[in-house]
Design a protein that fits this description.
Blueprint: E1 27-28, H1 29-32, E2 35-37, H2 46-51, E3 59-64, H3 71-84, E4 90-96, H4 102-111, E5 119-121, E6 138-142, H5 143-147, H6 159-175, E7 178-183, H7 195-201, E8 208-215, H8 220-230, E9 236-242, E10 252-258, H9 269-280, E11 284-289, H10 292-300, H11 305-314, E12 317-320, E13 324-325, E14 328-329, E15 345-348, E16 362-367, H12 388-395, E17 404-409, H13 424-437, H14 455-468, H15 472-479, H16 494-509, H17 517-526, E18 533-539, E19 543-547, H18 551-563, H19 566-574, H20 577-591, E20 593-597, E21 603-605, H21 612-626, E22 635-636, E23 639-640, H22 647-657, H23 670-690, E24 694-698, E25 702-708, H24 721-733, H25 736-739, H26 755-770, E26 771-776, E27 786-792, H27 814-818, E28 822-825, E29 828-831
Length: about 850
């Protein structure tokens, strides 16, 4: 669907600023003011950035530039300046957050004219002893290597790496060589800056001349890192910030695909349809997944779902995954197993940052965490655990003009529109769009807009008022105690808290910052906050298709993967069968656009209460789901199959359940009493039908039973007419299933029909419902005049059949109403309109 967000074409892009006031104790160059630069007409900052860098001044330079503005290219030009300097001798470190990016930087510096023989690479340490490094001017390593971080699986850096750092630092001290440290994509290296590793930076304290720190997505933790680094350059800091100016011709088209599935899987119907359409349009496809589990499913399950589509189109799929198991980050990968390849179709987790996708006619699918990943105290968002900055970085991977980005995400939670930073037409446009795509779940705590640049205040408030205040007396007691020779016991100061836990706290505590990623993405996309892409369309209700023979499989898929989360399970334990049926049915129509697929491949929209086959299959699904013993009708060689859930199944189930109700119960409503009476009457007339059975025998058949084609004259007598008419009127006019035509019945009973005609029609119908028969002709007459009975359908046990007698009273639990936006209209649950 198209988007009307024209009010936001020139709306300012909000981003995390780095300001001089963040560093009151540092010397800020440019008269304690940051330098604002603007990209050129093509959107790049190289010229202005170079013009504002003085290579002679000892300082730490912070470059805060938007994604795709060419900051990496610009900094390589800076490297070249130091490399070619004639009056000074420099050792240049380019520190990458990942090993996988070392080769990328290596190729870039060679392209800029730096001699390959003057470059040393991180991978050579300890592996290529024949390659010397004392004589190399440019060293491309990793941030964790520079800080001596051994990773999660070791306690100390390898001996080769320690010797490498020690030898180089002593060489620089003895020769007077000045050190330049460049840290690009600093947002992905914050975890290295633990106190025990910071000491390794002090090897360079006497030789560091300049630090260059670059990112498009700074956070509060990165400010603490900047202070650590500025200390190496005599507490001097220079802040260069680029304006976020959109270049429309450089922007990709952004599409949002809202999908409510509890878990995203390889065979998700909406995802399959999306990939199929992109392949049909000859797009080059890459898929970034939030978890290794999903990526592995797509790449390894090559006979179904998305996997089979990609396999047919590309043959060889590049699985780019890190060690993410069950959506959890179990450790930082020192050397990625598989790396992004611009010549292949890539599916994986490890290219959300640092990689530049340069493909022509490209479609980039990004699958965000599904609804089922939300946990009470910590999100399990895989590679997007860090919150909104990881989204911004992921979107920026596509660099070619004319590309498409498709974000696959759950519907966002309810939004507090009063918190928005705009009013009037903007607010109206956004509210209308958001209400169209939001989740039907209600919450006591709607998402609130929160400005990025008050995050420090939020962290300070939590740290002082909750984290620390709770332990003030204990901290004071420890500080006043004589603890000589005791283990260290120091409560973390505010900056230490920010560095280790600040981003996690924000991402898990504020929905807008990551606890509900979909809400931020929806807000940012509609208000035009992404520099490299612009919202072009969305799908709010995915399509869910049904094909003859596979209705039960499709219902089962929806139930297992899209529907029965913890909230729903609680409701399933508490409510009536009728409530469960209505709720499940309405969720299908609220969340999805349903269609049936005929044998010719043509689609036909399934509308509520208008597709008899769909409705009866759904009722059968609910019966076997709630009462598994009924499954025998739906199984063939242990495979799930469709079963024509009949009017007889429905009526017999109700005849059974009516035994559970006592008409003398004072709690019954008038509607319930009418329903119970109707099915007690049906049970009574069923017994009269069975009483018309005649037993006979002949030489060919032996003993057999039969009923006449027409009812006996005393089948329903005058004294029973009133009871009979009340029952028929209820079924035809009020029964939920029969009155809506879900079962064929009411067409045979018109108000103008005589009582005799109604009795004949009723006799014929219930004979179909309660008996299995074959037509037969007795010895006299030319026509079949009786029905031979092959089986009498039994009334099921009350413990093994649907109870659809108890009418839904909509007295759901409080938990249900907190999480849903239903209202009752004309006896059914539907989504509220506001």
């Amino acid at each position: 669907m198209n988007v009307n967000n024209s009010q936001f074409d020139d709306y300012p892009i909000e981003f995390k600023e780095i300001n001089p006031t963040d560093f009151p104790y540092l010397t800020i160059e440019n008269n304690r003011d940051k330098v604002i630069i603007s990209p050129n007409s093509d959107g790049y900052i190289t010229e202005e950035l170079l013009a504002n860098i003085d290579i002679t001044q000892k300082s730490t330079v912070v470059v805060n530039a938007g994604v795709g503005q060419g900051k990496t290219t610009a900094i390589i030009e800076v490297v070249k300046k130091f490399y070619l300097a004639e009056n000074e001798d420099y050792l240049i470190f380019i520190a990458s957050p990942f090993v996988s990016l070392v080769e990328q930087y290596y190729n870039l510096v060679i392209e800029k004219g730096i001699n390959e023989n003057d470059i040393y690479r991180y991978e050579f340490i300890g592996e290529r002893p024949e390659i010397t490094y004392i004589d190399k001017k440019v060293h491309i390593i990793t941030v964790n290597g520079l800080l001596g971080n051994p990773g999660e699986d070791a306690y100390i850096n390898s001996k080769a790496k320690r010797i490498y750092l020690e030898t180089l630092s002593k060489h620089c001290e003895s020769t007077g060589m000045k050190v330049i440290i460049i840290m690009d994509e600093i947002h992905d290296a914050i975890h290295n800056f633990k106190e025990q590793y910071i000491f390794n930076l002090w090897k360079w304290k006497s030789t560091v001349h300049k630090n260059f720190i670059l990112s498009a997505t700074y956070n509060e933790a990165s400010k603490v890192v900047l202070e650590y680094l500025a200390e190496l350059t005599d507490d001097r800091l220079k802040i260069i910030e680029s304006e976020r100016i959109r270049i429309p011709r450089n922007q990709s088209e952004l599409y949002l695909h809202f999908n409510p599935a509890k878990y995203y899987k390889n065979e998700n119907p909406q995802l399959v349809e999306l990939v199929k359409s992109l392949i049909e349009n000859k797009k080059a496809i890459d898929i970034l997944c939030f978890s290794k589990t999903l990526a592995d499913s797509i790449t390894q399950e090559k006979n179904k779902g998305v996997g089979v589509l990609l396999q047919r189109e590309y043959e060889d799929i590049n699985n780019c995954t890190t060690y993410l198991v069950n959506n959890q980050r179990l450790g930082r990968l020192t050397k990625p197993k598989n790396r992004y390849n611009n010549e292949m179709c890539n599916v994986g987790t490890n290219f959300k940052t640092g990689v530049s996708i340069e493909k022509q006619n490209h479609a980039f699918i990004i699958i965000l965490p599904s609804e089922g990943t939300k946990m009470p105290f910590k999100n399990t968002s895989g590679v997007f655990t860090d919150g909104v900055n990881s989204i911004i970085q992921a979107l920026a991977r596509q660099r070619k003009r004319g590309g498409e980005i498709h974000l696959f995400l759950p519907p966002p939670e309810e939004f507090n529109f009063e918190s928005l930073p705009f009013e009037g037409v903007k607010k109206a446009q956004f509210s209308e769009f958001y209400n169209e795509v939001k989740s039907i779940k209600q919450t006591n705590y709607p998402v609130k807009y929160v400005p990025f640049n008050i995050q420090n205040l939020l962290l300070r408030s939590f740290y002082e008022s909750e984290l620390k205040e709770n332990l003030e007396d204990e901290i004071r007691l420890v500080n006043n105690s004589n603890r000589n020779e005791k283990p260290s016991l120091n409560f973390p100061d505010f900056k230490s808290f920010i560095l280790t836990d600040g981003e996690g706290y924000l991402a898990n505590s504020y929905k807008f910052f990551g606890a509900d990623l979909s809400s931020y993405v929806t807000y940012a996309a509609f208000t035009n906050q992404f520099l490299n892409c612009k919202l072009s369309g969305y799908t709010a209700k995915p399509q869910l298709g049904f094909k003859d023979g596979y209705y039960q499989q499709t219902f089962q898929y929806f139930f297992n993967t899209c529907y029965l989360n913890e909230d729903r399970f609680g409701l399933y334990e508490a409510s009536t069968d009728f409530n469960k049926y209505l709720e499940f049915k309405n969720d299908l129509f609220v969340y999805y656009k349903l269609f049936s697929l005929n044998e010719n491949g043509n689609r036909e929209t399934i509308e509520l209460n208008k597709n008899r086959h769909f409705e009866t299959q759904l009722l059968g699904f609910m019966h076997r789901t709630l009462y598994p013993d009924f499954n025998e009708h739906f199984l063939e060689d242990d495979e799930l199959k469709d079963y024509e859930y009949s009017r007889g199944d429905y009526l017999l189930s109700n005849i059974s359940s009516v035994a559970l109700y006592n008409l003398e119960d004072n709690d019954l409503s008038e509607k319930q009493i009418k329903r119970i009476k109707a099915f007690k009457s049906l049970k009574y007339f069923r017994e009269k039908l069975l009483g018309t059975i005649v037993t006979s025998s002949d030489s060919n058949r032996g003993e057999f039973r039969y009923i006449s084609n027409k009812p006996p004259r005393d089948f329903i007598v005058l004294i029973e007419y009133s009871r009979f008419n009340e029952m028929i009127d209820y079924l035809v006019e009020e029964d939920y299933f029969i009155s809506r035509g879900i079962f064929e019945f009411k067409q045979r009973f018109k108000p103008s029909d005589s009582i005799e005609k109604k009795i004949n029609s009723f006799y014929t119908k219930i004979a179909e419902d309660f008996l299995k028969t074959t037509p037969h002709r007795l010895s006299t007459g030319r026509r079949n005049n009786v029905k031979i009975i092959t089986n009498i359908k039994n009334i099921p046990d009350t413990s093994n059949t649907l109870d659809l007698i108890g009418l839904p009273n909509y007295e759901f639990s409080e938990k249900f109403w907190e999480n849903n936006t239903y209202e009752v209209i004309n006896g059914i649950l539907i989504k509220k309109t506001s």
